[in-house]
Specification:
With 252 residues, this protein is of the alpha/beta class. The chain is 39% helix and 17% strand. The protein has helices at residues 36-42, 65-79, 91-102, 133-141, 152-162, 165-180, 207-216, 232-235, 237-250, and strands at residues 6-8, 11-16, 21-25, 47-51, 84-89, 107-113, 194-199, 220-225. Strands 1-2-4-3-5-6-7-8 form an eight-stranded mixed beta sheet, sandwiched between helices. Helix 2 crosses helix 3. It is globular and about 50 Å long. Residues 21-235 form the AB hydrolase-1 domain.
């Protein structure tokens, strides 16, 4: 399904359904397709919002986890959302945590899946290799338990991004910022109910990362999904949606 992309000032976003806002933050190579099943399911219960994060549009000094967190803060303020359920995958989770540590007042719950912020196996110092399609394809496949999830459409999307020199510079800046910006003990300051949904076969942020988030975030619960990699909402949407729905029902 194609969604209408709405605009308000410098913000572009999708907003579907009614109810308490469920704001979705995508990762470094994230796209709307990552959240397709999640949007379709939760628009029946929530106002599902996906802001387009300006990964390649910020000036180089603001191309950081902190810069993106400021953007999310301005977006949520501009839309005047209250009682927000903030969900982030990978880098999006990291951005969500940095935002909530500074501005907890509008947030009702936090949902992290494959989040960076403690530890992640990055794409390696050589990544991204421009112009090497096979390399990009193999790297994309590592995101999933089932390599077939790295469809030609998805690989083409990443390949196009990594073929642009300026975008590559921004990707590297964001990846380095994420590695430098280790949240460690700050996580104990998160007070809202937090749901951690992790792939048991995640090789980018392995299961021990989910366990460490659970240990450090006071009011948190951790769910593992078998035969699942770094993007549970894409790879096992049925199970992911059930865990999330149960969590949201319990904290009403």
């Amino acid at each position: 399904m194609d969604y209408e992309i709405k605009t308000q000032g410098k913000f572009n976003f999708i907003e579907e359904g009614e109810g308490e806002p469920l704001v979705l933050l995508h990762g470094l190579f994230g796209a709307l397709s990552n959240f397709k099943d999640l949007i379709e399911y939760f628009r029946q219960y929530n106002k599902v919002v996906v802001p387009m994060l300006p990964l390649y549009d910020l000036n180089i000094l603001d191309t950081s986890v902190g810069g993106l967190a400021k953007f999310v803060h301005k977006f949520i303020e501009a839309r005047d959302y209250q009682n927000v359920h903030l969900l982030g995958n990978s880098l999006g989770g990291h951005v969500g945590i940095v935002y909530i540590l500074k501005h907890p007042e509008r947030i009702k719950s936090l949902i992290l899946t494959g989040s960076s912020g403690l530890f992640e196996n990055g794409m390696g110092e050589t990544y991204p290799k421009r112009g090497d399609y096979e390399y990009i394809k193999n790297k994309a496949a590592l995101t999933f338990y089932d390599p077939a999830m790295a469809t030609k459409e998805l690989v083409d999307e990443i390949f196009e991004i990594t073929s642009n020199r300026l975008k590559v510079i921004k990707i590297i800046a964001l990846a380095k910022s994420a590695i430098r910006h280790n949240l460690g003990e700050e996580l104990t300051e998160i007070k809202v109910p937090t749901c951690l949904i992790w792939g048991n076969n995640d090789t980018i942020t392995p299961p021990m990362v989910g366990e460490e988030f659970k240990r450090l975030i006071p009011n948190s619960e951790l769910h593992f999904i078998d035969k699942c990699g770094h993007a549970p909402m894409m790879e096992v949407p049925g199970e992911f949606n059930k865990i999330l729905h149960d969590f949201l029902e319990r904290i009403k």
